[in-house]
Amino acid sequence: MTTITAELHNRTKKKPIKGMMDNVMEQFYSAADHIELHPNIRKILSITNNEIIVHFPVKMDNGDVEVFTGYRVQHNNALGPYKGGLRYHPTVDIDAARALAMWMTWKSSLAGLPYGGGKGGIQLDPSKYSAGELERITRRFTFALGDNIGPEHDIPAPDINTNSQTMAWIADTYMSTRPPAERTANQHVVTGKPDGSGGLEGRDRATGYGVFLNIKFWAARNNESLSNKKFIVQGFGNVGYWASHFLEKNGAKLVAVQDAFGSIRNTNGINVDDLFNYTQVNNGSIVGFPEAFDLDNEKFFTSECDICIPAALGNQITRTNAPKIKARLIAEGANGPTNVEGEKILIDRGITIIPDILCNSGGVIGSYFEWLQNRNGELWQLSEVMSKLDKKMKESFDKVYDFSEKERIDLRKAAYCIAIKRIEKAYVQRGIFP
Ligand code: NAD
Fold first, then answer.
1. Is 50 exceeded by the pLDDT of residue 4?
2. pLDDT score of 6 more than 60
3. Is any ligand 1 atom within 6 A of the Cβ of residue 312?
4. Residues 96, 159: contact at Cβ < 8 Å?
5. The ligand 1 atom nearest the CA atom of 364
6. Where is this site: Important for catalysis (predicted)?
7. CB of 159 sitting under 6 A from ligand 1
8. What is the CATH number of domain 47-187?
9. What are the distances in angstroms from CA 93 to CA 16, 21, 48, 172, 382?
10. Residue 17 has what pLDDT?
11. How far, in Å, is the centroid of ligand 1 from the Cα of 352?
12. Fold match flag (47-187 vs 206-354)
């Protein structure tokens, strides 16, 4: 006969690591319970409004045709048009798109923006395709999405493995397929465009800069300085690079980095811009950077440091590595990098987590500025963009930090409570049609 302890042990051993959808739902229910969210609104927010799956053919360079699957999930638009990125990655599926779309709803709401939440992408490994193939894939995906996206309806942005070039292709394809009189007025169908094509100066750094600001605000609240603080970064793309750049400028020291190809470390510090320049001539990879040593991937998260910035994929900090993490602060540049089990362990160990929907919200705030700029036919200066971003990020951080202290809850739950309450208010005021 199995003893209870043995059975419990087996159960723990077999328990699968929770997926992103499990995490976002658990986080939502926990906050909904805390604010005693009305059961009807709980029902509405528990599910996505629309899920679009498209299969579309694209001609490859060798003349063969490949059929791709693209997703766009629209979670909720009570506060405004759906907003959220498009990701090109092998892990993109309907479950990931649902979770990421939900996170966008909370993020836009928390930032006080007139947006709902959406997310999507294509399940592919872009490194296997030429630039020409990626352009045709993007344009055909845009065509397949048709009127499911639009500047006042659903506004995509860059995410993993998509960038300003991808957004320029989407905008051009969308505008080219509108009736003639509407063509040029629709460039705000996407944000994160190049600055010569309706993009916002500073949108490239907005997310990483926002991550840095959150860390700075946290340090100030705790009477600490960033000077000589050691930090590690997972993902050295748009978010990871810019967050590192601003932290280094403010005296902190990058001591370990991980990307899709491997991990490196140097306890004396890794120069951020030298590493960035190296990736530009090394197929985007950090591996082999001469001023650092190789590090086992498994040892990355448990490296000696003060601050850890996961800025790559979801579900990276779990019950497996959370007990051994050395950082005192986790600043979530990525969406959903810490799962619920990992988070419980970190909180029990007294480690603070600045949650994704707050920490990386500089991106969607920058996107909002770009959308406003396009809608009003304006051109904003970089200094104006950065100071507006500073102000908005500070408001969000203070709101969340103060609420967490007042209610004695962690920062994630506080952020969720604020975000959900704002959506609840819109439903209560408007009622449900018919
Ligand atoms: P990116 O494509 O510019 O960079 C991604 C980085 O992650 C690359 O360095 C890549 O090598 C690395 N990576 C990929 N798989 C990895 C793995 N298995 N292990 C370690 N590293 C891996 O993407 P990005 O725009 O910087 O986005 C990163 C994260 O930030 C994503 O979770 C995204 O949803 C989130 N985010 C991005 C923005 C934005 O404005 N770009 C805004 C909010 C949130």
1. no
2. no
3. yes
4. no
5. 42
6. 159
7. yes
8. 3.40.50.10860
9. 19, 11, 15, 26, 36
10. 61
11. 22
12. yes
